[in-house]
Specification:
- It is built from no helices and ten strands.
- A hairpin with a 6-residue loop joins strand 6 and strand 7.
- The N terminus is likely disordered.
- This is DUF6385 domain-containing protein.
- It comes from Sinanaerobacter chloroacetimidivorans.
- Pfam families: DUF6385.
């Protein structure tokens, strides 16, 4: 899986900066194959609202779901799933809230291009 981002790539959880800024956005672009692929892990510990936008570019289909984790290592699937077709965009909003979150994705066509926006808000 190839990934490009406005933020440095890391296998660790991206930092939780919501205490300094009530709105945070992470944008990633992925080229995924026909196996299950995962987004970067995002820290959502201070989040009160999370929306994830996904857009598939070109031909193919995408199945995606949010995965939640208490520790950034062990993940479980959230209850909703998203299915997208050619050049379609959709959203996922977590049913469960956890300290860490990522997106699990599976495409039917190798080298499918996907863009993900994590938009996180802390209202206090």
């Amino acid at each position: 899986m190839n990934a490009t981002s406005r933020y440095p790539c890391s296998h660790q959880c991206l930092p939780d900066t919501l205490m300094r800024n009530p709105f945070k956005e992470y944008i990633f672009k992925y080229i995924i194959d026909d196996n299950v692929s995962y987004s970067h892990t995002i820290c959502t510990a201070s989040a009160t609202m999370v929306t994830v936008f996904l857009k598939i570019y070109g031909e193919g289909s995408l199945e995606a779901s949010i995965q939640n984790s208490p520790d950034g290592i062990n993940f479980i699937n959230d209850i909703q799933n998203l299915k997208l077709e050619d050049d379609e965009m959709g959203t996922l909003v977590p049913y469960l809230y956890s300290k860490y979150m990522r997106i699990a994705m599976k495409c039917t066509k190798p080298s499918t291009k996907v863009k993900i926006w994590f938009q996180i808000q802390n209202i206090m």
